[in-house]
Amino acid sequence: MKSFFKRSAVIAALCVTAFSLTSAVHADPPASAEVHVAVSRQTVTEGETVTFSFYINSESEDGLEIESGRLALAYSDALDTLFSPDDTEITWADGVTFDSETELFTVSPARVFTPSDALLVYGLTVKDDALADGETSAVFTLSVGGGSYLVSGGEEIPVTASGAELTVLPAEKTVSATVNLIGNLLSTDNLTAKITDGEHEYPLVFGEIAEGKVTAVLDDLTQIEAGSYKLTVSGDGYIAYESGAFDPADGFRAVIDTLYPGDLNADGRIDFLDFHALCVYINGGEYAKTADLNGDGGMTQDDADCFTAGYLAKGAAQNE
């Protein structure tokens, strides 16, 4: 492991940090605090993006008031090999600014960091050719290194640290489902994606909806029991998708055009019975997840529009 202080200017901007945070009022400072590193996904493939978030945990559930400190990060040698520095995104908490000459950070207005407030977030993009020919995986670790501390109430607080580990797999070694959405879906809260072999079941994690589509990815391919699996994507009020059998070890990517909204009674069809049920919910003001087809948490005309889109798309597919 190396200190981020020894990196080039580009990597130093990513990884070497010293910050100064002011606070208006502070009780007795704790004996120690933890800087916890959380990774958005444990497994990614070439070309994908992952984020590392840094949180401050202390003895107080109300958070920790910080006046100054130093956060030195340590990383494995795979940093330069795996990630593209040009695609790195660094996001500090609101109000935090960086002085490149002094390498100090200040926050204005002063604020308290609770265990759920990320101090900073690193977004890293894996290179398309990160792995050498024949290489089946690579592991990257990022943690808080020695020399880190926080100052609170005028006292220096030792930092106990945790790290995060990321496994990078070849691009073809992933299990994912990209759904071309039918209708204006605003949230994936009502959707579920998973693979199962009848005995074991593993969920896929949905990303953000963008440009009329959303992708769900199996978070950790290395933990899957060997076997023959099927992928299903379903949702309240939707006709579900199910794939054929595949071996996750070989990777599997599905592009789905058949996740139809509008099947409120779950009979595999979208018809007048479903439309009648939807109208009852909308006109009566009663909320039902099966009728909230666009996922906005309400019963509105937008759900009717989503139903219409599903009805027309399902009918068009049946007539092909």
What this model shows, in words?
The structure is a single chain. This protein is mainly beta. Helices cover 13% and strands 38% of the residues. It has helices spanning 9-15, 79-82, 272-284, 301-319; strands spanning 2-3, 16-19, 33-39, 43-45, 49-57, 64-65, 68-75, 89-92, 96-99, 104-107, 112-113, 118-125, 138-144, 149-152, 155-161, 163-169, 175-180, 191-196, 201-206, 213-218, 230-235, 238-239, 241-242, 252-256, 260-261. Strand 9 and strand 10 (104-107) form a beta hairpin. The radius of gyration is 24 Å and the shape is globular.
Topology:
Layout: E1 2-3, H1 9-15, E2 16-19, E3 33-39, E4 43-45, E5 49-57, E6 64-65, E7 68-75, H2 79-82, E8 89-92, E9 96-99, E10 104-107, E11 112-113, E12 118-125, E13 138-144, E14 149-152, E15 155-161, E16 163-169, E17 175-180, E18 191-196, E19 201-206, E20 213-218, E21 230-235, E22 238-239, E23 241-242, E24 252-256, E25 260-261, H3 272-284, H4 301-319
Parallel strand pairs: 3-15, 4-16, 17-24
Antiparallel strand pairs: 1-7, 2-7, 3-5, 5-12, 6-11, 7-13, 7-14, 8-12, 9-10, 13-16, 14-15, 17-20, 18-19, 18-21, 19-20, 21-23, 22-25
Helix pairs in contact: 3-4
| Percent of residues in β-strands | 35-45%
The low-confidence parts are: 1-26
**Rounded to an integer, what's the Rg over CA atoms?**
24 Å
Could you report the average pLDDT, rounded to the nearest whole number?
Answer: 83
